[in-house]
Amino acid sequence: MKSLKGIVxxxxxxxxxxxxxxxxxxxxxSGAMEAPSLLFYRFAFATLAMGLAGALLRKDFRVPxxxxxxxxxxxxxxxxxxxxxxxxxxYIPSGVATTIHFLYPVVVTVIMTxxxxxxxxxxxxxxxxxxxxxxxxxxWGEGTIRLEGLLLVLMTVGTYATYIVGVNRSGVExxxxxxxTFYVFVVSTALFAGYAASTTGVxxxxxxxxxxRLLLLALLPTVISDFTLILAVKYVGSTVTAILGSMEPVVAxxxxxxxxxxxxxxxxxxxLALVVTAVTMVVVRQSNKG
Length: 290
Description:
With 290 residues, this protein is mainly α. The protein contains twelve helices and no strands. The protein has helices spanning 2-17, 20-30, 35-56, 65-88, 94-101, 104-115, 122-139, 147-169, 177-198, 208-244, 247-260, 266-288. Helix 3 packs antiparallel against helix 9, helix 4 (65-88) packs across helix 9 (177-198) and helix 7 (122-139) packs antiparallel against helix 12.
């Protein structure tokens, strides 16, 4: 039962995270707001939503002082991932960045087996490699590749892998998921406030459509995505959660086809098939474990 819950949470997390382009691209393309302000509002609204949810559910937001530093570091890793990916798009094609970023399941697997004694699994390793190949076929396109972009996106491989492992093995797993998510968002909001203030400044929200998109961006691919990620890690661990994260680019590509008339050819179909195969392998393995 725990495995099934974890799989559902992991797929919900990666699928909602894949909705980021649906809400962010129209804002950036229209010129309504620059990326630094978008990131700030995304996490500011997410923090308010998570805080309200915790208050309504009467959660205890008191956290042992010994865990505050760990939570702050997790917030830094989470925010660094979002910022690194966003900045990398200025130097390399987003598809290339997405493909390189999805090396993180392999890094998670290596960390868990090397440092935390997780049993090696040939099935999970094969699934991780299949998912990376599938993401590559889905995302890779033509474009100029600059060293700055490669370094930024390689950074996100490490920061996101560390975040997923940290949620599982740093001691914060004892904290209520709503409270943990709230504090991760608080740290992220503070970092993006500084980022916006030091670059474009915090821009005002120009119109109602922009406000609606920002609210949806905060709710679906931020609040729901990270909250279900934390629950997934709790139930099925870091490695399985990371591999099932390959559903994110699948959803992003499908949203691009549906909403932005992007191409979906033979390469995309093959990539989708590889990702679905990888996900199926993980689901079957977890189901057999009971």
